[in-house]
Amino acid sequence: xxxxGYDKLVAELKQLELVELPQVRDAIAEARDKGDLSENFEYxxxxxxxxxxxxxxxxxxxxxxxARVIDKSLLGSETVGLLSKVEMTNLTTNARMTYTIAxxxxxxxxxxxxxxxxxxxxxxxxxxxxxxxxxxxxxxLVKLRIESVQLx
Length: 152
Description:
- The protein is α+β, with helices and mostly antiparallel strands.
- It has helices spanning 3-32, 41-66, 119-124; strands at residues 84-90, 95-102, 113-115, 132-137, 140-151.
- α1 packs antiparallel against α2.
């Protein structure tokens, strides 16, 4: 994954551990003080939130434990690979689009980052500018021409 993605995950993990989890624990203690727990909605809601947070924290810890930060200087910029910014044209609709190939944990379509495990990224891997690829997507078969490849 990129250094930026790694740093984002570390920051989110710290936020969960140092801010949100203590807030939920306080809410549980406060609800517990109100008496009968069997009919205490606030207590049960806080316990559910605590379980959700703990699950998310464990997941993020595992991701970070196994993550490898990619040194961009070691990557080639001629062919499509992880962290490549690819500009392409859909030959059916003549629509131009630009995506950055990212790790699955960094993928975010709003930011123009697609997972390296997505059908489009898998079809683009190892290709160069000028190449035409056919990709099977849920909507059918799409032909894409790679216009440029840059290291993001």
